[in-house]
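[[Local backbone shapes]]
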Amino acid sequence: MVKDDGVLVRVHAAALHAGDYFLMRGVPYLARFAAGWPRPKNHVPGFDVAGHVEAVGKTVTRFQTGDAVFGMCGSACAEYACAPHSTFARKPAGLTFEQAAAVPTSAFAALHGLRDAGQVRPGQKVLINGASGGVGTFAVQIAKSLGAEVTGVCSTRNVDMVRSIGADHVIDYTREDFTRLGRRYDLILDNVANRSFSDCRRALTPGGTLIPNSARAGMRYIVTAFVRSAFVRQQGRPFISTPTTEDLLVLKELIETGNVTPVIDRTYRLSETPAALGYVGEGHARGKVVITL
């Protein structure tokens, strides 16, 4: 039954990200509350979806049956998904359903970390640690669209890909440590947390900003960055990415103007979702992992 403000979508593709893996594992511990307490409920993974509108609630005027849409909803790895109409937008022109499903959660995190928390301005030097991952691939492109000079940090096998999506400079972390090269950045978006806050400070300008964005590091890393920023000029600025209809449309425009293109590592069939979650959990996905139906 579709609620009055709801949209029922026939799913053609859904995307996974690290949050799905953490909910499945119940690590960090707080993730267990999201999956059900004291025991996990019948949790269906997936927050990002693309497909065709199957039905709309009686107060919905933005969409009609048959529209191709993308957006966010719970339990996206299923044949059908239902959510308020405000969480969807029409699929960007020129994208496949797989590409469209890869966008929302990770692109929101990149947009909110750079534009809102980081307040990136044209001409600033921005470093993306973990530039080849789901958030990182969007962050490189969004930082460029904001006018920044972008440096991406990734492994050897991903250097060419990160450069191809717009990074001005690429650092191979297997060969060089970006915190010890003597280069300084106005902002570091840290998707990996493989360096301490103290180490990252060496790579920041005197008034630079560190944006921690790594669930793998847990709250300790985020809180440490925030607390220490009270005693030094460099700011550690945690953020919470809250999706909005307006920003979903911002992402749609960035895609349709050619500023952002989703990067997909692998696709799996719905029946292969456990294997896809396992691959996401390894932490080495290049771009996004997508489930197709």
